[in-house]
Give the backbone structure.
Amino acid sequence: MSLILVGIGGIFGGITRFQFGKLLSQKSNAAFPSGTFIINITGALLLGVLTSIDTGKNVYLFLGDGFLGAYTTFSTFMYEGFNLFQGNDKFNAFLYILGSLILGIIGYSAGFAIGKLL
C-alpha cells in the first residue's frame, strides 16, 4: 500500500512540477532559473506545514514522500546551478544555489510554524 500511495502522489507531484515550471519559464526570460527556484522554495514551505501537523502515515506517504518528493527537484537544481557556473554566470550561480538553500530552510521553518498554528 505504501508504494501505491507514494507512486500516485509522485505522479501528481511530477505533473504539477512540469506544468508549473513550464508556466513560470514562459513568464520569465531571465538567465536565472526562477521556475525551479520557486518550485523548490514552495515545496519546502509545504513540507514544513505537512510535517508540523499530525496527518497520519498514509497521508504523509502520499503528500510528503510522493507528491512533494516529485514536485521538488534536487537534480534539476544541481543541473541548472552547474550550467550557470559553466556559462560563466557566477553571480547568478551563487545567488541561485545559496538563495535556494537559505530560502528553502526559511520556507520550511515558516511552513512548520504555520502548520503549528493550524
